[in-house]
Amino acid sequence: MRCGPLCRLLWLWPCLSCVPAVPMRKVQDDTKTLIKTIVTRISDISHTQSVSSRQRVVGLDFIPGLHPNLSLSTMDQTLAIYQQILASLPSRNVIQIANDLENLRDLLHLLASSKSCPLPRASGLETLEGLGGVLEASLYSTEVVALSRLQGFLQAMLQQLDLGPGC
């Protein structure tokens, strides 16, 4: 008689049961640490201090501002938009920040799965497809406003993580 997959699974079961799960407290702490790191990276870019995150800049309305109610899905969607904006900028200042946002989104997905939240992989907004024209007209302004608003959003996100955001 052939054992097949069932026998292999039964043989591996004791090994798999010994593998410790990642504690969600550690994931949440890692998420907060990464947020603080990104905020520090943005602060180190000197020209981001010149614009308030609440200031309205005509033509840059596609860059998200602060959200009053942050859930895990809202955080992920907003980070996807910022990630898409930063990836479109030619500045070398934002490459690492864009990579950090991808890692932050992965950590958010781990937090969501620990809470049994269905968190679909957000890919940004379709309205950002026409971003090229805005970028050609105002690269510097787009970078400054995006980083300034991202910094404010990340600080709000950090506060919300302490409160335990919903799905």
UniProtKB/TrEMBL annotation:
Pfam families: Leptin. The keyword Ribosomal protein does not apply. One of its GO terms (cellular component) is extracellular space. Residues 1-21 form the signal peptide. Keywords: Disulfide bond, Secreted, Signal. PANTHER family: LEPTIN. Key player in the regulation of energy balance and body weight control. Once released into the circulation, has central and peripheral effects by binding LEPR, found in many tissues, which results in the activation of several major signaling pathways. In the hypothalamus, acts as an appetite-regulating factor that induces a decrease in food intake and an increase in energy consumption by inducing anorexinogenic factors and suppressing orexigenic neuropeptides, also regulates bone mass and secretion of hypothalamo-pituitary-adrenal hormones. This is Leptin. It comes from Oryctolagus cuniculus cuniculus.
